[in-house]
């Protein structure tokens, strides 16, 4: 169970409280958009298989808070059908969909695409 502490991130490529980009994909692997948030917890080896009879699929999941740009269809079916959405400010995401934000690039758009060693 997530403890929401830096201890969750031992052995992780990310740090507790780190700002990240999360890449959202369709079921067919096409990139929809990228959102941002702050890492709050980590759970390794979570079985994310969607069907009960499917073979297990294990992934490391991160609880991301302070999400910006993430919405889902409105829970009211009538409003959802009309295209209404509701903002989501925290959720779980798989490690492979997360990318660290390099503050040096975010603060200076001229450095976008430049690699730092």
If you compute it from the alpha carbons, what radius of gyration comes out, rounded to the nearest whole angstrom?
16 Å
Q: What distance lies between the first and last C-alpha atoms, to the nearest angstrom?
A: 35 Å
Number of helices: 2
What is the strand content?
35-45%
> How many strands in all?
7
Strand order of the largest sheet: 6-3-2-1-7
If you average the pLDDT, what whole number results?
Answer: 87
Q: Give the % helix.
A: under 10%
Order of helices and strands: EEEEHEEEH
Specify the structural class.
Answer: mainly beta
Shape: globular
Largest sheet: 5 strands, antiparallel
What oligomeric state do these chains adopt?
A: single chain
Uncertain segments: none
């Amino acid at each position: 169970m997530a403890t929401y502490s830096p201890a969750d991130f031992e052995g992780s490529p990310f740090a507790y409280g780190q700002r990240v980009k999360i890449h959202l994909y369709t079921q067919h692997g096409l990139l929809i958009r990228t959102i941002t948030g702050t890492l709050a917890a980590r759970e390794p080896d979570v079985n994310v298989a969607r069907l009960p009879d499917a073979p297990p699929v294990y992934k490391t999941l991160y609880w991301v808070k302070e999400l910006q740009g993430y919405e889902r269809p409105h829970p009211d079916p009538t409003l959802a059908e009309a295209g209404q959405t509701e903002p989501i400010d925290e959720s779980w995401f798989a490690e492979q969909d997360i990318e660290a934000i390099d503050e040096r690039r975010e603060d200076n758009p001229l450095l976008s695409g430049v690699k730092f060693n």
